[in-house]
Amino acid sequence: MPSNPVITPPDLPLRDIHLPSEIGWWPVAPGWWLLLGLLALLVVIIRGYLLYRRRRRLRCLALARLNELSSLSEVQLVRSLSRLLRQAAISHFPRQEVAGLSGEDWLQFLDRPFDDQPFSSGIGRNLIDAPYRPVVTLDGTALIALCRRWLKKLPPQQLSFWRGR
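User: That's the sequence. What structure does it adopt?
Assistant: Structure tokens below.
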């Protein structure tokens, strides 16, 4: 019977153990791409929300200022309302479109959101000539209510998404 030959380890044709190479940082795992995408989405959402708040803030400030004007005399009230409406219009519309308007053109601009033209043919007409009359008699409450309606109908202020203006 043949016997098994005894083999010693140095006689075996074995190679040394090779460890795998280290894991590199690139390409990143899909989970990191997902996290990066979620962070970018979060930045866009926060920026959009801040712009939305800023646009609303200007309108709210104008409405708050309107409430403060109710205690003024008629001449001061008309002057202040005219100034407030002009500032709000310049803040919400292109300056080239609004800044040069006066007289009937200004009233027609203010009438745009309304069907009944309350500025051209209603109480809003006082905004043109009342500041220059020596004695003014008008319904201040109705004029303030009309200005409040106009401010509430303002479109959102146009702001650039990345620059904020």
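Residues 59-152 form one domain.
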